[in-house]
Amino acid sequence: MQRRELGWDDTWEETWADACRPGLVPARVTRIDKGGLSVDGADVSFGRQLIVAGKKARDAVVGDWCGLDPDTARIELRLPRRSVLERRSPGADRDDLALSAKAVAANLDHLLVLQPLDVGVNPARLVRELVIAWESGAQPAVVLTKSDQVDASALAEARAAAGAAAPGVDVVAVSNLTGHGLHELRPLLRPGITVALLGASGAGKSSLVNALAGRRVALTGNVRESDLRGRHTTVTGQLLALRDGGLLIDTPGIRGVGLWRAWDGLAMAFSDVESVADTCRFEDCAHTGEAGCSVVDAIEADRLELYRSLSAELTRLDEQLEIRTRDVQRETNQRSRRKAQRRRPPT
Ligand SMILES: Nc1nc2c(ncn2[C@@H]2O[C@H](COP(=O)(O)OP(=O)(O)O)[C@@H](O)[C@H]2O)c(=O)[nH]1
Ligand SMILES: [Mg+2]
Ligand SMILES: [Zn+2]
């Protein structure tokens, strides 16, 4: 594919001029499998060949622009990201390994957060995904899938619930089966624009990719990865180009979405809470039930509870990170002290 069709533009050209090294060509990561990466770009056609990530590009994810060495089939550098969808690494709460961010996809312009209507809108899950969506830097939209499974009144109810959970965000209802509502997403799918899909397993991400592409490009349903060894096992997502322009990133379903430092994302996802919080007449108000608090008066109790629990999660993460920084600092100090002692000449 041409680089421009993959989202390359003049700004990337400038970024590249700053970062590039002789012999490297720009390429975009289109897929990550267990064995390596797939990339695409005008000077390279490595669509089927697996690329190895060099030391400086180990953290590359789908959507990243990289510097590829065509001779060695290695990516040697990763360009700074414009946006990145990030969550907390899965793992037990106390596990130190879980104290890191896990990037899911990079350089997105729009992020579609999917909720299946057969199950119904799940506000807790939806707001969590909207927080990381806003934090990514991409523009979120909510897509209610499987509209063919509900009647008009249930649909209206679901729309209202999603709208309340996602202030300032467009809500679109679609059926991947009948194609109903898909035209509302078409304006997003412009040449060079990257749209990523986020949602629980079974939400209809891969089906939506296929519906928008007009052909089967993504695997749908509960197909186990082990059943497909050697075939398209989407491990950490893939980037697909649509015929009429537009790029889609299908991400794997994530069971639980742990937040990674996302205070800005929280403020955006709860703009309704934040705006009344500004009018609260109490200084240092926790908005937790004080009589006369404008937030408690204006915001629905369930919504306020979600806001509180997510900010508590972010506070806990900040505390854990602080403790770890202190531990690391102490260890470094001890090590340099021991080193200094060893160097001291015997008296
Ligand atoms: N009735 C109906 N079923 C759908 C729709 N979209 C997806 N499905 C079904 O829901 C299941 C999960 O879809 P899939 O696209 O694999 O979800 P993913 O895990 O989010 O990628 C599959 O059995 C699909 O056939 C839809 O719009 N309507
Ligand atoms: Mg899928
Ligand atoms: Zn208050």
From TrEMBL:
It is an enzyme of class 3 (hydrolase). Keywords: Cytoplasm, GTP-binding, Hydrolase, Metal-binding, Nucleotide-binding, Ribosome biogenesis, RNA-binding, rRNA-binding, Zinc. Residues 106-255 form the EngC GTPase domain. GO terms for biological process: ribosomal small subunit biogenesis. InterPro entries: G_CP_dom, P-loop_NTPase, Ribosome_biogen_GTPase_RsgA, RsgA_GTPase_dom. Gene3D superfamilies: P-loop containing nucleotide triphosphate hydrolases, Probable gtpase engc, domain 3. Zn(2+) binds at C280, C285, H287, C293. Residues 95-257 form the CP-type G domain. Binds 1 zinc ion per subunit. Residues 335-347 have a biased composition (Basic residues). GO terms for molecular function: GTP binding; GTPase activity; metal ion binding; rRNA binding. It is found in: Cytoplasm. GTP binds at T145, K146, S147, D148, G199, A200, S201, G202, A203, G204, K205, S206, S207. One of several proteins that assist in the late maturation steps of the functional core of the 30S ribosomal subunit. Helps release RbfA from mature subunits. May play a role in the assembly of ribosomal proteins into the subunit. Circularly permuted GTPase that catalyzes slow GTP hydrolysis, GTPase activity is stimulated by the 30S ribosomal subunit. Belongs to the TRAFAC class YlqF/YawG GTPase family. RsgA subfamily. Monomer. Associates with 30S ribosomal subunit, binds 16S rRNA. This is Small ribosomal subunit biogenesis GTPase RsgA. It comes from Candidatus Neomicrothrix parvicella RN1.
